[in-house]
Design a protein that fits this description.
There is one protein chain. The strands form two sheets. Strands 1-2 form a two-stranded antiparallel sheet. A two-stranded antiparallel sheet has the order 3-4. It folds into two domains: 39 residues, no CATH class; 156 residues, no CATH class. The longest helix is centred in the first third of the chain and has 32 residues. The mean pLDDT is 90. The protein is elongated. α4 packs antiparallel against α5. It has six helices and four strands; from the N terminus they run ααββαβααβα. By secondary structure, the chain is mostly helical.
Length: 198
């Protein structure tokens, strides 16, 4: 009976320590030291939450920058890749369709190179970033769709270049642009489009 009581007390103590006290302490520290990150790195526009910097979302409107494709339609619950192999006929057809849609949507020629991040979904299906090259190829479409003046188009090009996040520590990963933040900044150039209405 003593052994059972000790085991029960130990279970209760460990449950209290690891199930309540430790998570509460970590949550409190995170909220104090990293308030924006601990709340999901949310992005706001005029008081409305329009998404998170960490989770990709769909932008199909031609007046916005398009994100990287998602195998899960940007749903966070079943996040993941397509699990299609490099030799899969389904993957080949999917990539071909994405390439054709990107070329047609941006009025590019069949000889233009489409960046890989616009053809393949990420492992999570929720990548919020695209490459600078993918963003630059979309400038013409967006400028035309929004009827931007020459000065606004130049400002859009400058915006893209200023939105580039460099490699971490100068050598880790790739240069990238956060699509949600870029589209939010894009709305400031003019026009009636607003992400929160999408």
């Amino acid at each position: 009976m003593k052994s059972f009581l000790r085991a029960f007390l130990l279970l209760g103590a460990l449950t209290l320590l690891t199930g309540l006290l430790y998570p509460a302490a970590i949550t409190a520290i995170a909220s104090l030291c990293f308030p924006a990150q601990s709340r999901g790195s949310l992005v706001y526009d005029k008081g409305h939450c329009i998404g998170s910097r960490l989770i990709g979302q769909s932008f199909t409107d031609s007046s916005y920058f398009w994100p990287r494709p998602s195998a899960t339609n940007y749903s966070a619950m079943p996040s993941g890749g397509s699990n299609l192999t490099p030799v899969s006929d389904s993957l080949r057809a999917l990539v071909g369709a994405r390439r054709a849609a990107f070329l047609a949507g941006n009025r590019l020629s069949a000889n233009d190179t489409v960046p890989n991040d616009m053809l393949f979904s990420s492992g999570s299906g929720l990548d919020p970033d695209i490459s600078p090259g993918a963003a630059r190829l979309q400038i013409g479409r967006i400028a035309g769709k929004r009827n931007l003046t020459d000065s606004q188009r130049t400002a859009l090009s400058v915006l893209v270049e200023h939105s580039i996040v460099p490699q971490q520590l100068g050598f880790l990963g790739c240069e990238r642009i956060n699509v949600l933040q870029l589209n939010k900044d894009l709305d400031r150039l003019g026009g009636d489009n607003h992400i929160r209405e999408k």
